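Exercise 7.
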Amino acid sequence: MNVTSHNVTYCDLTNVKKAFSVYHNYLSVIICIFGSVTNVLNICVLTTKPMRCPTNLILTGLALANLLVILDYIPFVFLYNGDKAYAYHFTYKLAVFVFFHAWFAQSFHFISCCLTVILAVWQYIAIKFPQNNSKWCSNEITKITILLTYILCPVICIPLNVSLKIWERQIRVDENDKITKTGAYNATVYITDYESEYSQYISSSVYAIAMKLVPCIFLTVLSSLLIVEILKAKERRKKLMTPKPEETAAMRKPSQRGLEKVKQADRTTMMLLAVLLLFLLVEFPQAIFGLLNVVIGKKFEVECYQNLGDIVDVLTLTISSINFILYCIMSKKFRTVFKELFCPYIPCFNGSKENWISLQTIQTSYV
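Solution. The predicted structure, written as tokens, is:
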């Protein structure tokens, strides 16, 4: 049950919303263009033959989901955002678009959340159970998991759409069709809103708990376990590389190939961990705010959550766009394949394939 007090002001963020709204559309368009390009590049590179592995299949599915979220947001910025002061901002077609946008954007963002959790599970298995990694996380199992994620997540998001309705209302407008209480004319507008308070409560609960809080909790636990296993694996390697009293340093010195595998696994794990933590940085606050919307009610949502909506959207779009930068910084193999695909004639990018850093975890590195 909602705990709402009409005499309490939970947030005073109206000025924050007004100040940020000046920059919101410009930032959103820039980030969307950048994110569209980077996610297409991610898909092109990750689907090449040298990059095919279970981890990269998940990253490809993640890039596709992020791309669809970004592409959906571009028309939303132009058609719906801004100062909606005229009746033509509330046509039936725009109401239908908002109705579709509410389901489509949340569905594919939820897919992105679930694939990020799956990525954490796959990486944890690779470190904790390296002997079973190729069996439990094979290409076939990974493809089926991704396909099920793309099917089930939109189904889970259906309550978001069921709870919405396109309302027809009469408002007062002036001779320029501008909405004003003292207008001389009536105009018909169409607004997408919740069908009832109960349907809003159900929708908010599904959004806050199933789509935000649960994935964030799973991801927090998995990230913590992943960090613990990384530290344990490093400690095991340190013991293995330390000579026993009867051994000389030369006898225990690892091969160059072994050291390279360790570096590959470490860079891969740190890169994927960075992807997980950046995702949590944006999603966990949204989960908390969404839960407060359910517990406190409409007043909190209007005063706090809605006033921060534009900022949340920009942060979400940013996180959906920057994985390409992480891959380029932390994966030499990704950089090399990218160069071969898009700029093969630039000499300064030439390098040996033997030195590639794979996005696929080396299974034997943590034994």
